[in-house]
Automatic annotation (TrEMBL):
Database matches in SUPFAM superfamilies: HybD-like (SSF53163)
Domain of life: Bacteria
Protein name, UniProt field: Hydrogenase maturation protease
CDD domains from the UniProt entry: H2MP_MemB-H2up
One GO-annotated biological process of the protein: protein processing
Gene Ontology molecular-function annotations: aspartic-type endopeptidase activity; enzyme activator activity
Naturally occurring in which organism (per UniProt): Thiocystis violascens (strain ATCC 17096 / DSM 198 / 6111) (Chromatium violascens)
Family classification: Belongs to the peptidase A31 family.
Keywords: Aspartyl protease, Hydrolase, Protease
Entries under Pfam families matching the protein: HycI (PF01750)
Gene3D superfamilies: HybD-like
Length: 162
């Protein structure tokens, strides 16, 4: 079965809480049935090479550390237009390319996933280190639960629309 949903974890695994996106997808993939129509990618610190996998799936969930002004470890889901607004508001990136740039490329090539969401986790500390802070570590199961809820909701909407 071809994957219908790309779950993309972002971040630098050597920078404490910046690694939360990679950690969430690693754990989620480990507990997910391999036959599920999901594709998991550790997107690292972003690259233009991610444009193709993003355009190949009609549904996209991005997991990343996101400075939202909340308490460390807070999890928020930005879906559809709310994701687009969040990315535009925080378009600055120290990476080769920003997630906002990748979404703009998808728009220009008419490959923007119809269903898309950003699962943001508020970091406590971003600096050299190979472990998440306790607050962000504690948020990983909540982020996974939010991803599962998105998938369930999207699946239900597809069934009722079909």
């Amino acid at each position: 079965m071809n994957p219908t949903t790309l779950i993309l974890g972002l971040g630098n695994i050597l920078m404490t809480d910046e690694a939360v996106g990679a950690e969430v997808i690693r754990r989620l993939e480990a507990e997910t049935d391999p036959a599920a129509p999901l594709r998991f990618i550790d997107g690292g610190t972003l690259s233009f090479t991610l444009a193709a996998p993003i355009g190949d799936c009609p549904r996209l969930i991005v997991v990343d550390a996101a400075a939202m002004g909340d308490a460390p470890g807070s999890v928020r889901v930005f879906e559809g237009e709310a994701m687009d607004r969040q990315l535009r508001a925080h378009a600055k990136s120290v990476h080769e390319v920003s997630l906002s740039d990748l979404m703009d490329m998808a728009r220009l090539t008419d490959t923007l996933p119809a269903r898309r969401a950003l699962v943001g986790i508020e970091p406590e500390f971003i600096g050299w280190g190979e472990r998440l802070t306790p607050a962000v570590e504690a948020a990983v199961p909540l982020a996974i639960a939010n991803i599962r809820a998105l998938l369930t909701g999207w699946d239900a909407a597809s069934v009722s629309a079909g």
